[in-house]
């Protein structure tokens, strides 16, 4: 077999991911708050970027600015601006009370005069953060004056609790970690379980409820007997089996269950130190008359331009050192590409939302029950873009509509067939299931099969497993766990 070398000419076409294209794709999938962070960081790193004053009319030159687009979402443009001289005017305030000033000036000792109309800050706003569960338990541990070994064991246990206040390790693991005996660890653990909040440092839910029952003085009561011996029946609300096993009346079981229901299953959640995440819509949809108006959220979004000072420096030619000129040119290209990418991002978001409004007009007017099934391909074909671009645009973006604030991904739902007529969106079916659960009799909740029959009466054809899947997504319990037993007392009727 002979080996030889041959040359072949092949013509191929491929997409080269330039740094500018990578930047445009990155900006496209950022949320509004993330985009603000990127812009602020670029303004710090790139001296050629500066913010256009709001009161100043922008001007553009075709040599150094991106092509002007007449699209509705022009966010940032590169424009030159004449540098105005800064003048400082010093004037004496006319609202000074000179008589009061002279009296205070002639007084002995330092005197501070504060006008009556001045607003004082509220000292509640100076709190840096909320107290966490670890801080709260460590504070109680140190107040109990522990010795060195107790403090070491207690710190190890407290720092290994989950967010609900439950233990995440065994006694043997803590003994190995702290170098103590298991009896010492048990002693310290029993001490920690008496701390506030009651029920903390428990191994599981059963122990958490037993700790709270002992705190209430119910050691030998029916409550403890139910928790210790019939916890499975308690979870399944099989109160008749508990009544027969313990030989007590049904009303007595309901009274004990009422006490258990009012206990805290997650004692540590009241000390959660997680900060709430606020949603800032990227775009607003308003209904004015019979039309829907789309407005981009530009509140707090800086409008960027290229600094006139550095632009004039480039026009000096050889007067500027070559190294400095190369640096300015590199930063100029980076600034122009950033402004173009932001401008293109806003235009793309506008076009996507415009297409969604055309497809979901009936939802915007009447509510979630009229949401139509839609996929990314529908919007991509409507605006002439690729599905991946639409997917990036709708990720972590929110729109405020007359029906509420939704993520753009919310409008893309799979279709559910009707018995007669057009298909319906899966989100509308979930809303229908939620309405059925809310309207059911608490003593006789609907099963999944019964909800299938009710949905068929509403011209919606779904399988039982589909109803079960949607019910779990809505965090709705099965019918046997939603059932509320009606007892003799009013307290039991309200459980």
What does this structure look like?
This protein is an alpha+beta fold and 495 residues long. Among the domains are: 204-263; 418-493, Arc Repressor Mutant, subunit A (Orthogonal Bundle). It is built from 22 helices and 8 strands. The strands form 3 sheets. It has a 4-stranded mixed β-sheet, covered by helices on one side. It has a two-stranded antiparallel sheet with strand order 1-4. A two-stranded antiparallel ribbon has the order 7-8.
In short:
With 495 residues, the chain is an alpha+beta fold. It has 22 helices and 8 strands.
Task: Give the oligomeric state of the chains in this entry, treating copies of one chain as homo and distinct chains as hetero.
Answer: single chain
The helix/strand class is alpha+beta
Strand order of the largest sheet: 3-2-5-6
What is the first-to-last residue Cα distance? 87 Å
- In one word, what is the shape? extended
Task: Count all strands and give the number.
Answer: 8
CATH topology of the domain at 418-493, anyone? Arc Repressor Mutant, subunit A
Report mean pLDDT, rounded to a whole number. Answer: 79
Residues in helices, as a percent range: 40-55%
pLDDT < 50 stretches: 57-116, 488-495
Q: Which sequence of SSEs, written as H and E, runs from N to C? A: HHEHHHHHHHHHHEEEHHHHHEEEEHHHHH
User: What is the annotated CATH architecture of the domain at 418-493?
Assistant: Orthogonal Bundle
Total number of helices: 22
* CATH superfamily heading of the domain at 418-493: Homeodomain-like
Radius of gyration: 34 Å
